[in-house]
Design brief:
Elements lengths: L14 E4 L7 H6 L4 E5 L4 H4 L2 H11 L3 E5 L8 H14 L3 E6 L1 H13 L7 H5 L11 E4 L11 E6 L4 E6 L7 E4 L9 H19 L7 H23 L4 H14 L13 H13 L3 H16 L5 H12 L7 H18 L17 H9 L11 H10 L5
Parallel strand pairs: 1-8, 2-3, 2-4, 4-5, 5-8
Antiparallel strand pairs: 6-7
Amino acid sequence: MEERINRFVYDVPTKIYFGEGQIEQLAGIIGEYGSRVLLVYGGGSIKRSGIYDKVMELLRNEQIDVWELSGVEPNPRLATVCRGVEICREHGIEVVLPIGGGSTIDCAKGVAAGFYHQGSPWDLVEDSSLIQQALPIVAVLTLAATGSEMDGDAVISNPDTCDKMEMNSKLLYPRASILDPAYTYSVPSYQTACGTADIMSHVMEIYLAGKGGNEVQDRFMEGLLSTCVKYGPIACREPENYEARANLMWASSWAINGFISCGVNSCWPLHAMEHQLSAYYDVTHGHGLAVLIPVWMEYVLNDETVERFALYGTKVFGIPDTKDSYEIAGLAIQKTREVFLEMGLSLTMKDLGIATDEFYEDMAIKAADGLEDGVVPLTKEDVIRIYRKAETSS
């Protein structure tokens, strides 16, 4: 039967302010929604880079009051979300302003939704249908990676249960996001590489699960992947290369704002498996994905998937299509591995700081839930095998 695009509705309500100097618009944007703001951020990088002082000056000049939620973790934790909710309720916060990467924005989304929920914000993670209201979110992006600046998803970790799960709602789309590539100049090479791997994974979850029939998105996805392959290593070598930073930042948003998945079904096996690595071992999400991607590719390569993998090789890496499909696919997997290595990401479990397999079975049970619907169905045993192969694959 001919492959066809399923029915879909596409609507992204986030207004993007892209380019250098767009931070000047911030106070005016926030003023549309209120004058009492919760500023959400991670460590001290926004203070060292000067963004914090600039934002505070802009808001102060417009008589906008600011409270702060700092110390957001790389895998944002439920306790931090709860702390943010308490601040919002105590001070009558009207707008949530995350400045940072995906973790900061995800935390802000949890706070924005949790503000209106009388129980634990974790209830909203377990059942997103409970999200009926959310405070408006205005985001300032400083790391190209998760795409949270232009989607309605938020991933929250609960260390007490070793769970890392996603909440999702149209209400969690930021009302506006400021994307200034210059704000990513100070991002270390390691985080740039992890972010690039994350962007690539978002596209691969859709592209490599496809069978054709959606030419518009296929060509778009190949462009996104080619952009990452080209500019990821450049940004790692030349952190103040505006062209590289701008292309990665825009690719980050379009990799996961819903466009490439319109009418396409995928169960996202890479993220299902990596979320368990982050939940149990607190690894950096993008690095965990980089370790898993080549191993998963090799594991699911078969007669049914080989043509898709070969297409990836010819379109993204320019491998001649005169070669045998399996040879092209194998070269494409190796070139993917080489891109990660070129950006400085070592590719074994040990390199993630994982020295024990004691949690593999528990992780695999959680990860495999739903993966039976993938282009190559995966069981708990399959997931464990992939984890074990990742112990030595490099």
